[in-house]
PTN23 phosphatase (Crypturellus undulatus), 675 residues
Amino acid sequence: MEAVPRMPMIWLDLKEAGEFAFNGAVKKSAVTVPRDFEGCSTLRKYFGQLHYLQSRIPMGAEQEAAVPIAWTEIFSGKTVTHEDIKYEQACILYNLGALHSMLGAMDKRVSEECAAGAFTYLRDHFPHSYSVDMSHQILNLNINLMLGQAQECLLEKSMLDNRKSFLVARISAQVVDYYKEACRALENSETASLLGKIQKDWKKLVQMKIYYFAAVAHLHMGKQAEEQQKFGERVIYFQSALDKLNEAIKLAKGQPETVQEALRFTMDVIGGKYNSAKKDNDFIYHETVPALDTLQAVKGAPLVKALPVNPTDPAVTGPDIFAKLVPMAAHEASSLYSEEKAKLLRDVMAKIEAKNEVLDQFMDSMQLDPDTVDNLDMYSHIPPVLMEKCAALSVRPDTVRNLVQSMQALSGVFTDVEASLKEIKDLLEEDEAQERKLQELLGKSLPGPRTSPPALAEVSKECSKYLEVHEKASFTNTELHKAMNLHISNLRLLSGPLEQVRATLPVPALSEDDRQVLQNLKRVLAKVQEMREQRAALEQQLRDMIQKDDITTSLVTADRSEMKKLFEEQLKKYDQIKVYLEQNLAAQENVLKALTDANVKYAAVRKALAEVEHKWNTTVQTLVASYEAYEDLMKKSQEGKDFYTDLEGKAAKLLEKARAACRAADTARQQLLEK
């Protein structure tokens, strides 16, 4: 792209601190930080020092030195209090991620990877029960939003640096992948209820970005095809880019002017590319344009990552101000054990995410929604939009009659005009015939060639003009009558009993075998959902176990030489849940095979249902269009009547003039014959 239009970024609000029995000056400097990178540095230092503090003093949940800590929950504004120093750490870490997201949304467009890192560390190392704004679902949403925006920034730079088209396409495709993950989270009913009113705004923006960056990806795939002189592929990629951009434009209603400008600019680029490519292929290259689904899908290239958070990095946190309180050996050993737990979680999560990715891609390719797989309920009632039109016509019983009368009135005046013009034309033709007859009779005895009387010439000229106007208007009149005839039958239907309207709408005719195929498909889809839910529950159970697993007291008395053995013994507590997870992951292959078989049998039923649904939608749209066309038809009918009434008056006057002129000409001929 010749320039790189920018899309707005989503950023998160910071949490507000409440009560915490800690040194006032320290607390104030940590919770009222400036909104800049210095503020991020302050939060990191405070977070690190809290980490040193909690490893030495028992300030955790239900421990001897625990004190109340209060913070405001972002979405509800309620104050949430816990007697657990880890809650203070979690809130500071959340604010670190939120502040990085705020800085990332500014012009410099950096910092999203830091935000993703903060939220990832918060998700993996702290309980999710502190408050809803730090729940597992919300943190996953934040992580995918930040990674998507970081990849979006990388895409901007790649386009400005004129990187290779294929690389730019892959980077853009990965932006789409991250935003799709975010969109899945936003569509989750639980997440939506937590977010409240901002869920709709975020969802609209993310959905629009999905189509926009999909368009950018296919634009650059088209450019790559152009570089490879694959002119047929170039056309289909540019066409796909145009289609996706049009979808983005539809979803961008209500977005700020900067978004509209970016979309208009991109439309100019993609539209120009498509028109040029199509023209060149049509007139020069004549290459076959392949179907888009026959081309290899663009695989995303994830070139950004969540930057890790290290609470014990002295370069970030500064010197340990609590170093003399307890032996560091126990703290170091606890950190090593925490890393072993984190490694175990990473290994398990890598397997889960790999299986989830396969499952998501499989389900996306199937395009099967368990809730609407048969969609039979929609045929059991008249849709609200049609009921609304029927109700409106029920209080306007004269609708059809008014339209018919208007048509009849228009036809009447049209016929009058046509009759007047025909009579004028007949008079003129009769006069010409009489004139030719006179010339044949008298021949050379006439003193010279005869010219048409001025009055008749004027009538002939006016008649030609009116005939031309009438002929042009006649076509419009004919089309108007066709439209009226089309819509009148629909309006009669909408004005009649609802049973007739319902009978007009098509319904699927499924055999008993078809219904069994549907039930089997639903059963397998339910099995897929059960597998998903069980997997998520086991994952959460594992995270909770890891979160609560604190062996610090054991480490204080343990011999350093026995540390490795102690770790191995402690980690055995996770073996059983790992077995359950492995069984769940292993079952996926069989479940997907069963779903594939069920979907193959469902193909014919699906096609039949799709055809009926298409007919149903077309019928509804046609009936609604007839209702909406009524006012326009009445207006055009009145305009036509007014036009022909005016023309009829002019034609009537011209007819009288023609009769008088023809009588005068006839008298003149009689006088000439008498001489």
